[in-house]
Amino acid sequence: MAVNDDLDPVRRLRVMAAATPGCVVVERVIAAPFEEVWAVAADLEGELPRYQPSVKTLRVTPGQGDRLEVVALGRAGLCASFAAVLRPGWCWMQSRTSVFGLAAVPVEGGTLLGRAGATRRRGLRMLAAPLLRRAFAAELDRFESRVRQRAQ
């Protein structure tokens, strides 16, 4: 599939979320340069478990080009394997049961960061959406804190 270069990563995230049943997107402007924000986002193994509370550890194995294999171990003991794409400003990960996305673009006053996600379990989609919005907002609070801590 060809990448449409007319869409910046956050706009692409919105499109992917709209095409994914039950997907929720939360966005925030973080008062930091793109490079500092994306340094946290791109450090999947080191940072994602710090701002995503259900993830205990994450292991990333490089694939072809910007493709990755990701194995996440949850705090409840569940394990999930994700096919992922990671490039500057863009991260999209899909497992059999869930979707995870991050996208960022520089904007006036900092960096616009978008967080998308969904469960692929049909029966849970409608129930999960309101919970995911609150969880993602709290997650972005922790993410922003990590950006500030790393910048010090």
From TrEMBL:
SUPFAM superfamilies: Bet v1-like. This is SRPBCC family protein. It comes from Nonomuraea dietziae.
